[in-house]
Automatic annotation (TrEMBL):
Coiled-coil segments on the chain, per record: none
Residues covered by the AB hydrolase-1 domain: 125-380
Protein's name according to its UniProt entry: AB-hydrolase YheT
Entries under Pfam families matching the protein: Abhydrolase_1
Length: 459
């Protein structure tokens, strides 16, 4: 793998994930038993040793369910993530809070457990979740993590709080401005984390992103560096190099016809649901291109991004971009991995048909652990649970082990967090007058298994 990666855990079989670390992994402070005068002294562990001791699933076999196994691709795993019925498992309910941003946009925060279900201590760790392309808190891959993470400890869970950041227009969140979201725009997650930190100042915040949300999370952590309010991150099925991976979708007939078209259709349907809201901004580029976009029945993802996302997928500057490919180059997260300064776990499948280029070297970043499974598809990883015979997502196991480890075992110090203040009702961060948020009416109780009908789930 080159000189940048000197520690690769050697798999005993092809079904064991391959783990990649920097030559000299970061040392993390870990909690030690309280023993007299040594109570304030905390041992340091290298990131590879920290993970080896606390994430055993990353060092054991992942055996795909036999009827989803295919030797040359992850199509079956990915297809099951899209068409499988997960409505009867991992039931999660939320309280929704709507946040208005300075530009007039709206994002939705779905918190679980709901207030009427149980009350948690103010210092309970919080899992901050970013969903995929057109997903939301209802997605099965989100619930597969949050259901056990937020189950009480006495019932076998972690007992954490979960908060899903639903992007503009997704999962029933109203579209109140013509600006959309994208793989590279981080200000919405930034203000969401500011709001969460302000609401729960004693809680430890742990970030996890899926697919497009993993890309946003990676870029956010890289941009924040030592000022990150999230103390750890986990990126699942991140697209990383958007140029090369988009090119892989476009250059392969099957990928272009199935995946690129399905993702474009999801985005078209999402815009169609908000057509009336977009019509309130008749002079905006989004309103002018909307009829053409909605009427194109053969649009690919790159074509959609070339007409919509590269123009309105974030604030100006840097938007608009001349083309989808210029936007992809800017939005990619593989080159910023080196700037992350919190413990970070990346999980990808080698046979993912959507993400085919993986930056396992991570720029030599000592804070990054990169795990790659041979099988799993895109947001799949379905395997058989031996005890029950059920088909469930294997990836939930290492993610939960990671969340417990960084939520409970590490000691967080030397963070350079900027103070928050309120100006004209908007929560802002010192030194950033251009972004902010405030709560608005419209939040409600949300049942997580009630999804966005008509969309291809899991993409």
């Amino acid at each position: 793998m080159g000189a940048l990666v000197s520690q690769v855990w050697t798999a005993r079989s092809s079904r064991v994930p391959r783990l990649h670390f920097a030559p000299d992994p970061a040392k993390v402070l870990v909690k030690a038993p309280v023993t007299g005068s040594d109570a304030d002294e905390h041992p340091r562990e290298s990131l590879d040793a920290f993970i080896a001791a606390r994430c055993p699933s990353l060092y054991s076999d992942f055996a795909p369910t036999w009827w989803l196994f295919k030797t040359d691709s992850g199509h079956l795993q990915t297809a099951y993530a899209v068409v499988g019925d997960f409505s009867r498992i991992d039931r999660v309910e939320y309280d929704r809070t709507l946040l208005r941003t300075l530009d007039g946009g709206t994002i939705g925060l779905d918190s679980t457990p709901p207030a009427n279900e149980r009350t948690l201590p103010d210092d309970t760790p919080i899992v901050v979740v970013l969903h995929g392309l057109t997903g939301g808190s209802h997605e099965s891959y989100v619930r597969a993590v949050l259901a056990p993470a937020c189950t009480p400890v006495e019932q076998g869970g972690l007992g954490y709080r979960g908060i899903v950041v639903n992007f503009r227009g997704c999962a029933g969140v109203p579209l109140t401005s013509p600006q959309l979201y994208s793989a590279g725009h981080t200000d919405d997650i930034r203000v969401a984390v500011m709001h969460i930190a302000n609401r729960f100042p004693k809680a430890r915040l742990l970030g996890i992103g899926f697919s497009l949300g993993a890309n946003v999370l990676t870029r956010y952590l890289a941009e924040e560096g030592t000022q990150s309010r999230l103390v750890a991150g986990c990126a699942v099925a991140c697209p990383w190099d958007c140029v090369k991976n988009a090119g892989g979708l476009e250059d392969n007939w099957l990928h272009r016809t199935v995946y690129a078209k399905a993702m474009a259709q999801n985005l078209q349907r999402l815009l169609g649901r908000h057509a009336n809201a977009i019509a309130k901004f008749p002079e905006h580029p989004l309103a002018k291109v909307l009829p053409e976009v909605l009427n194109d029945k053969s649009m690919s993802l790159t074509q959609f991004d070339g007409k919509v996302t590269c123009k309105v997928g974030g604030s100006s500057p840097p938007f608009p971009f001349p083309s989808a490919w210029d936007y992809y180059a800017w939005a990619s997260s593989h080159e910023v991995l080196a700037n992350i300064r919190v413990p970070f776990l990346a999980l990808n499948a080698e046979d993912d048909p959507v993400v085919q280029v993986l930056p396992i070297e991570a720029g030599g970043n000592p804070y990054v652990a990169f795990a790659v499974t041979e099988k799993g598809g895109h947001l799949g990883w379905f395997g058989k649970v031996q005890a029950t015979g059920e088909t469930r997502r294997w990836v939930s196991r290492p993610v939960l082990e990671w969340l417990r480890a960084v939520g409970e075992d590490i000691v967080v110090r030397d963070r350079q967090i900027k103070p928050l203040h309120v100006v004209d009702g908007f929560l802002k961060e010192d030194g950033r007058d251009d972004i902010g948020c405030k709560g608005v009416e419209g939040g409600d109780h949300v049942v997580g298994v009630e999804g966005e009908e008509g969309l291809f789930a899991g993409l």
